[in-house]
Amino acid sequence: MNLEHVRAELELCSSGEETIMKILNLQQSVQNRVFIWLWRWWSARNKANAGEKMATIAEINSSVSFHLMEIEKLVTTCMNNSKNPSVKWKPPPSEFYKINVDASFYENSNQGGWGFVVRDCDGTFLEGGAGRISRAASALQAEALGILKSLVRVADLGMTRIILETDSTIAGKAITSNDFDRSINGFLFMQIREFMASNFVHCIVNVCSRSCNAVADSLAAFGCTLEGDSCIYMSHPPDFVSVLVSGEQPETRV
Questions:
Q1: Looking at domain 97-252, does it have CATH number 3.30.420.10?
Q2: Where exactly are the structural domains of the chain?
Q3: Which of 17, 92, 168, 231 would bridge with 96, disulfide CB 3.0–4.6 Å?
Q4: Under 8 Å between Cβ of 161 and 240
């Protein structure tokens, strides 16, 4: 979880009160990670004490990542709804294509789905895709796999100037910095960065609200239901997202 420096500091605390105060003085994002990890660790220990199967370190960390993603999405949605309830997807500049990506993940089965949509400066649907993730260790890993699969498809189309949008702050930071390179998904994040650098002239990564990622979110949910690996929609969106796509075209807004 990239928290070794925090563990070392907390180990020096002489009481529970001092430990809590030390955590509360951490940056908010780190604070959340620590509290959720302690909660999941405590829960795993209780189950083991009750005679149930002992969770592995990887399972605990995956659970932490899942809950962090869910909390992050919930907080982002609430903030956007309160500050700017009318925020919508925006088309890219004329020289760019915008790719919105999302993933779904089910912790109980460790399965999920991914989806992406490519649009131009007019908001025209150029291509979309969805696929099933048969195995993922966490929600964050599912997001990263969805990003990589989408980028591979976009590169195959010959697009070299793109804006990639995800509604996951953690995933966005992980693929644009080395902050998470030492985590369990570090190799995957580095692979994505290398792919972006070698396949695109310009690749801008943005983090957007969930309301701006509705099409990709629906495609990712659909990807979970697929029996095969993936499906691609060229030029015309599938029926279940056509209303969302048309509603986000610039000329249809009020």
A1: yes
A2: 4-83, 97-252
A3: 92
A4: no
